[in-house]
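Exercise 7. Given the encoded structure of a 525-residue chain, write a plausible sequence.
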């Protein structure tokens, strides 16, 4: 496409032709009681980003956002908690996350020029909650970026260790190298970012499909495997036979007690964390009102195939009670176990290669999202200094905001080298996962306000039975937060998250209240 206005295809043209052309960003009411689709060209008048992401980019970004490193490495811990019933937990949590995405999708469909769904918290809940959500979410992204860059270097070292090459002394250089490359990917053009994410997702999908296919073949032939040494496991594995009986024999919902079953929900929830990333790409997506609903509606199918399918495949081969922790509390990768039992001795190298790409994909996406959120915060800020980050480069990407976010993420190896600081960093990183629950709740509350506002678009991507589904999602997120207090390992982060909500959230809301007080007295508001 040769110009910004020509990035919309015929489907968008048809949609926009039927729209009311004199609408604004905040109001779609052209006559009393008549609410119709806002024209995308009008909404895009304030969108300085380039709509360079194609349909296949967004579809695979959505898939990549669903599949994280937790599936490849952390699913052994989840399986050990509840056994085969973990499948129902993944389905239940996946269904709730789908409701979150439907709410975000409805908001973004209404105004596809917004760079982030956080803007709707600002619009419908006020500047105070919007400021709290915006800065909190950006800080979460930076902290997760620090965690992911550490994970990338760790997996990279582990990958080469399978070939007898020790790169442990070069972890800092590996982290710097990955960050520089991925920052470059984000700075070149949004199309390049989309293409890189497409291939990252393709690699993850290929491994999952290969593992599921391997499991099917092993079950069909009744494959028997002997005890072998599994990389990442400090005790010998048990011999066994691939069979569906491994899933159903002596089945119990909570074989290790109801507390373990409840704890599995938070573990699975964090595996889905950042699934909302596709909602940040809308302002740079071609034909967003065609592409976005398709990407979101297929989330459930992806959950069934990539999570449920993978977990079922693992447990028909490896009896769930075989998942036992190492002395340090860690678990071997179930993917490595499956391929190892199948006689593929190079499996550990293959899995860690894919895990490297999964972690790199997460870091790439975090850089993208952090850059867009800092850009939005800079645009909304009255500070001239911060405002300098609220501009786009000639390639139509928020280059300054991306570089600023990357500059903080690169501090990770320095922080990890200082014992006292490292302890605080681990606490803050863990607390960031708790804080994101507040963001999700605020997003759902903003969605409720939208549905009751004059902005509501009845011919949009409407969330079904919203009063019930919205309330259900909010109740679930509150439930997940409560479970954080049930275990000593998550209680600290949960308390830190509450402190952050009370102190920073209270400051933002009260500051807005006092700033608007003179206006209310004057009858302006």
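Solution.
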């Amino acid at each position: 496409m040769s110009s910004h206005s020509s990035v919309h295809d015929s489907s968008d043209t048809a949609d926009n032709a039927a729209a009311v052309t004199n609408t604004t960003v905040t109001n779609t009411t052209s006559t009393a009681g008549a609410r119709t689709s806002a024209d995308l060209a009008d909404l895009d008048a304030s969108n300085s980003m380039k709509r360079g992401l194609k349909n296949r980019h967004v579809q695979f970004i959505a898939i990549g956002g669903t599949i994280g490193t937790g599936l490849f490495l952390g699913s052994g811990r989840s399986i050990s908690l509840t056994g085969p019933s973990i499948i129902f937990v993944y389905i239940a949590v996946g269904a709730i996350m789908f409701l979150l995405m439907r709410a975000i999708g409805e908001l973004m469909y209404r105004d596809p020029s917004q760079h982030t769904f956080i803007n709707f918290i600002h619009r419908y809940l006020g500047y105070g909650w919007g400021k709290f959500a915006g800065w909190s979410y950006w800080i979460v992204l930076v902290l997760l970026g620090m965690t992911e860059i550490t994970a990338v270097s760790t997996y990279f070292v582990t990958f080469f260790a399978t070939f007898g090459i020790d790169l442990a002394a070069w972890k800092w250089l590996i982290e710097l190298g990955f960050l520089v490359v991925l920052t470059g990917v984000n700075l070149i053009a949004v199309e390049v970012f989309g293409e890189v994410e497409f291939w990252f997702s393709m690699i993850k999908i290929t491994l999952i499909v290969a593992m599921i296919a391997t499991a099917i073949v092993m079950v069909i032939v009744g494959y028997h495997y002997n005890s072998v040494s599994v990389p990442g496991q400090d005790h010998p594995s048990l011999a066994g036979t691939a069979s569906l009986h491994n899933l159903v024999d002596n089945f119990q919902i909570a074989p290790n007690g109801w507390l373990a079953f409840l704890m599995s929900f938070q573990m699975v929830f964090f595996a889905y964390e950042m699934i909302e990333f596709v909602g940040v790409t809308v302002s740079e997506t071609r034909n967003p009102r065609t592409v976005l609903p398709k990407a979101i509606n297929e989330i459930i199918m992806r959950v069934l195939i990539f999570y449920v399918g993978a977990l079922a495949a693992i447990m028909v081969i490896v009896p769930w009670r075989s998942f036992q922790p190492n002395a340090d509390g860690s678990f071997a990768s179930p993917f490595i176990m499956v391929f190892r039992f199948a006689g593929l001795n190079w499996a550990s190298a293959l899995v860690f290669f894919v895990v490297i790409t999964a972690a790199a994909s997460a870091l790439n996406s975090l850089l993208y999202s952090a850059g867009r959120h800092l850009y939005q915060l800079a645009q909304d800020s009255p500070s001239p200094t911060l405002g300098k980050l609220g501009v786009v480069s000639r390639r139509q990407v928020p280059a300054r905001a991306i570089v600023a976010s990357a500059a903080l993420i690169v501090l990770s190896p320095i922080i990890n080298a200082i014992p006292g600081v490292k302890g605080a960093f681990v606490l803050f990183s863990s607390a960031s996962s708790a804080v994101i629950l507040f963001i999700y709740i605020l997003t759902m509350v903003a969605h409720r306000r939208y549905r009751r506002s004059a902005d509501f678009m009845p011919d949009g991507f409407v969330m079904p039975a919203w009063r019930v589904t919205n309330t259900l999602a909010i109740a679930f997120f509150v439930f997940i937060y409560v479970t954080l207090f049930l275990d000593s390992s998550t209680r600290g982060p949960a308390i830190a998250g509450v402190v952050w909500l009370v102190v920073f959230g209270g400051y933002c809301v009260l500051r807005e209240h006092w700033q608007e007080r003179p206006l209310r007295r004057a009858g302006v508001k």
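Remark. The chain has a mean pLDDT of 84. Students should compare their own answers with the one above.
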